Amino acid sequence: MASASTILRAAWVPDDDPERNWEIAADLAVAWVRQECAEQGADGVLVLNAFGVEQHIPSLRCFAAEHAVTTPRASRDRVGRGRGPVLAYCPNERTLDFAANLARGSSLVIVESIHGFPLEGWARQIGAIDLTRPDKQSEQLHSELTAAIDRLDFYKNNGFGDQFGKQQAQRILQDLRGAGLLERDVILGALAAKGASDRAVRNLGKLIDPQIRLEAVGAMPVLWNNDEALDARCG
Question: Which residues are bridge partners to 224 per DSSP?
Fold first, then answer.
């Protein structure tokens, strides 16, 4: 995935308001990417998880008629190495990875779906403009969390698929759990913004989940922790 340093400008529409319909979210993203295309004198690219979604939203349909449209499963020949600003609509990890690579040296805007890939960490790491609050500064990550993400980024080369990478990641995650900073979505999004592949992001998520379960069990009062409750009754 392209890192934050290779993308000139970034923006997003967070999926944080159940009253905001998808047409409004798409309209905000399309307006932003059109402006980026005009300023850069370049054609845009619409990136989807699957073809056909754009037909249900007028602004996406119009943008698709004027610019390239592709998916991670389509041939890269459709857009070559990327043509200009990129709009990714409700991407999962794989689609985000693909879109970020297409946006190298240009701009990227994403409409988030929390059912796809939560983007808060990505937005905070990359400094993306929140198009629903364009005048608000992006919230910075906690300094200890930033340092941990840098360490995870160092060990990501094999996608956390090798034993050494897993062990190092688990140590870092344990430290974050102890510090109360084990925020799954934020960590995964921030690492994606630093250029981690979709494979690395998925594998790290699998390492985080057991840590979160441990955190939850450790935080339970005795009567809500079945094992401890049994010990208490038998003691």
Answer: none
List CB contacts of 195: < 8 A, sequence separation 6 or more.
1, 2, 3, 4, 6, 100, 153
Dist. CA 22–CA 90, nearest whole Å: 10
CA dihedral 104, 110, 113, 119 (to 10 degrees): 60
pTM: 0.82
Q: Cα separations (Å) of 153 from 3, 146, 197? A: 11, 10, 11
Q: Rounded to 5, what percent of the chain is helix, strand, coil?
A: 55, 10, 35
Output the pLDDT for position 210.
84
- Per-residue pLDDT, 230: 35
| CA proximity to 121, closest of 145, 102, 97 | 145
The token pair that represents 199 in the structure block:
């494979």
